Amino acid sequence: MKVLPFKIPKPSNTAIVFQVDSGQFYGQLHQHEELQISIIQEGKGTLLIADTIHHFQKGDVFVIGGQQPHVFRNEYTDALMHTLFFSPQSFGDSFLGLEEGKGVGDFYAFAKAGFKTTTTTELTTIFKIISQSEGLIRLSYFLQLIALLKNCNYTPISSFIYDKKISEADGKKLHRIFEFSLQNFSKPIQLEEIAHIAAMSTNGFCKYFKKRTNKTYFQFLTELRISHASKLLKENTTLPIADIAELSGFQTLSHFNRKFKLYKKMSPRAYKSSL
User: Fold this and answer.
1) Which of 64, 124, 182, 252 gives the lowest tally of CB atoms within 10 Å of its CB?
2) Angle formed by the axes of helices 217-235 and 253-264, to 10°?
3) Rounded-to-integer distance, Cα 201 and Cα 151, Å
4) How far apart are CA 135 and CA 129, in angstroms?
């Protein structure tokens, strides 16, 4: 199976594609030119996108820019996600030249790095109508949807835009790196070990990873561990902070406290109290 690039299956006569993912989501790191708008209907898990890791749950809405490498990993098989895909090129130059059409291209550029928001009754209703309609009705509500998303309260989900198409070989290599990291972040990982997974020298791996994610591997690994610790702090209120540090891959509590405060701008205890 090709990891990257990924082609969105769609009829040749439509610009907006609606897709339902259930059970296990597409489990390979991939990218596509279409912008993706996804609503998590059921389940929870992890989204890895470009240079960052996010947890998702029911009610989350993710807008993923075109060509942003990403993968959803759900924790349970009963997960359900509804998604819209579109690319400005699918609408044609004539439409994009119209005042109404400019909004499509503008939103595609606006959401290039991606962002996260929470679904509302209005957003859910519009999304449902789009999924069940065709032609002018679907287009009308789609334009309403992107206008609504552009003006909602949102959180950016990536700080790095990767414009280039990633080759199949690169995609497989990055998938091995991320998959190994997601499965082993709770244990010590040596540079030589992850470089071996990538079939590269340590020096070559460091340059390779930094070029494609805009951060060092150990910055990425620390963010992965902090993300997991944040999830445990939220979901396991009685679990001691020292145990959370250990379960998240930190060798000492002092190191965990220092890194957590660096990334979250507050201590683990303060974060736990704020929830």
Assistant:
1) 252
2) 90
3) 46
4) 12
